Amino acid sequence: MGISVRLRLLAAALLVFAAAGCTAAAPTPTVAPTPGAAAEPAATPVGNGLPGMPPVTDPHNVDAAAGANMLSDAAKAAKPLVYVPHTKSGEVWVIDPTTFATVGKYKLGGELQHVVPSWDMKTLYATDDTTNKVTPFDPVTGKPGANIPVIDPYNMYFTPDGKSAISVAEARRKLVFYDPHTWAVQGELQTPTCMGIDHADFTPDGRTAVFTCEFAGRVAVIDIEHRTLLRTIDMPQRNTTMGPQDIKLAPDGSAFYIADSQQGGLWVLDKDATKVVKQIPTGGGAHGLYLSRDAKQLYVTNRHEGSVSVLDSYTGAVLTKWQIPGGGSPDMGNVTADGSQLWLSGRYDNVLYVLSTADGHLIQKIPVGNGPHGLCVWPQPGRYSLGHTGITR
């Protein structure tokens, strides 16, 4: 997120808390850290899924259809490339993942935040929340098309049935639903107490989404089918400057992992998204969450200490930590289609990091432009995309 936007949102958040502090939801009681404990052993049933959503193939692993090299026909047609949006220079750089060479630079203007794969995996969208647009890229050619007007798209997701694109209008504290083909507005959902709304993930049945509220120290639980706010849940420690960031569902649907930069680790939300059950320390500036191709490991980027923590994605147990040589600011990215590499933007260092998922060693450091953010490694395995930098199932 851009510094100017952060300052504006932080000031607004302080005013809201001052006015509404006595009516805020009661915080969840603090739970002592237990890094090795299981979150919830039982898998979530996947019956009664959101109508139109592709069925879950394995209740123990909702990501089973996104295993190594399990590419859809649309993904197979794509040219393997890495798309890097820049918040400061307003550019998308395109990188060849084989040679690590920059093969394209596109000056799009604004504050580019993420490159987001569409639900059908046929288009990638660079989101710009300062000039209210998304720019489509054709993954077959790697070239951009004409801009599309979208309200404040800090981030973007797609409903699991593919019927709506969701613009996460962070500065305006709302979600805007669009027809993903015509880009006509379908409706809006106000989230006034979710200051800094930005990242999301969905329950196995696709009916519920949990969005993080970075400047409110809480999450917002959304009924996707009816487009209603079900509840907000406060974190045990409400960090409101750089609080809840990325969120990831455990493969068996037993928990949601929530990265909290200020807390230096993860909060663990129960499978029904009703309460925080524990916290897991990982490192300073915990930010991005990515699964290995077999979904057995969860990679946590610790942006302020230049490291990546590796967790058991089912239990949350910390397995190891990879330190980037010389430090750095690992932010967002994804795993390659074959699962062998983890690509991450160096948010504050104007570089990309390419790490081996076998042992975490640094394969390559690639200089890029000013302010690299939510990069997209493409193609990705899976049947459909939920958005962000490539959440596929």
TrEMBL record:
Residues 28-47 have a biased composition (Low complexity). It holds the Pfam family YNCE. It comes from Pseudonocardia ailaonensis. InterPro entries: Host-pathogen_enzymatic-act (IPR051200), N2O_reductase_N (IPR011045), WD40/YVTN_repeat-like_dom_sf (IPR015943), YNCE-like_beta-prop (IPR048433). Residues 274-376 form the YNCE-like beta-propeller domain. Residues 1-24 form the signal peptide. Gene3D superfamilies: YVTN repeat-like/Quinoprotein amine dehydrogenase. It comes from the Bacteria. Residues 28-55 are annotated as: Disordered. This is YNCE-like beta-propeller domain-containing protein. Keywords: Signal.
